[in-house]
Amino acid sequence: MRIALINENSQAGKNGIIYGALKQVADEHGFEVVNYGMYSPDDRAQLTYVQNGILAATLLNSGAADFVVTGCGTGEGACLALNSFPGVICGHIESPLDAFTFAQINDGNAVAIPFALGFGWGGDLNLTYIFEKLWSKPFGGGYPPERREPEQRNKKILDGVKAVSYRPLPEILRALDRDLVKGAFAGEHFEEYFDRDCTDASYKALVKELTA
After folding, report:
1. On the CB side of 117, how many CA atoms lie within 13 Å of its CA?
2. Residue 5 and residue 7: Cα distance in Å, rounded?
3. Which of 191, 200, 176, 169 is nearest to 50 (CA)?
4. Interval 33-91: pLDDT, tens
5. Most buried by CB count within 10 Å: which residue of 84, 107, 132, 196?
6. Is 191 exposed, middle or buried (0-12, 13-18, 19+ CB in 10 A)?
């Protein structure tokens, strides 16, 4: 599994802490973590949580990432932004229990975490515990176990609803403000990582078109 980490500008200063906790757990599972930044509050590319949604959707739909970890001050804005796009099911995660039940019941591909609200003493430990419980079992196993079948059925229904509720992502990206989209792809290492990891040539061409 390839996990993309994305930070927006208000919490960019915590990128190192988040990356450290995420990589510790990912390494135990043999997962790869790709850190798209922001890396510090002084980065040239200043990403908003809306742009995190654009970036996350592009990474997931293009095959450049299998899972996205992101957030903002409360986690709410990032969660709303990511869920605005097709191919993304993002959970708002505050605790290890949230992480476990989201993975087992909702079987999503992204999480939005509050990196300011409630992030006090021990915040780094809570992140580690969140990531541990998130990947403690294969996704979609159901919780409690006797609810597995209806939960899996509901997830398929949700996937079907999302499939008809959104336009294709390329159409959406072309219809958005061009500067907003270009800003989402302006991170220091975006071009390098995306070109290396993207598995869909049409998305590579699309990103080149949108950033030209």
Report:
1. 14
2. 7
3. 176
4. 999 999 999 999 999 999 999 999 999 999 999 999 999 999 999 999 999 999 999 99
5. 107
6. middle
Q: Dig out the tokens for 115 from the structure.
A: 């990196």
The CB density around residue 120, as the number of other CB atoms within 10 Å, is 8
Which helix (H) or strand (E) segment holds residue 106: the answer is: none
CA–CA gap between residue 175 and residue 88 (Å, rounded) = 19
Tokens at 98, concatenated: 């949230």
Confidence of residue 176 (pLDDT cuts 50, 70, 90): very high
Q: What is the mean pLDDT of residues 113-130?
A: 96
Alpha carbon distance 203, 58 (integer Å): 8
- 90-105 confidence digits (pLDDT tens): 999 999 999 999 999 9
- Spatial contact of 138 and 147, defined as CB atoms under 8 Å apart: no
- Give me the phi and psi of 210, to 5 degrees please: -75, -20
Tokens 């294969």 belong to which residue? 138
Question: What pLDDT band is residue 178 in, cutting at 50, 70 and 90?
Answer: very high
Per-residue pLDDT, 183: 97
Contacts of 175 (CB under 8 A, 6+ apart): none
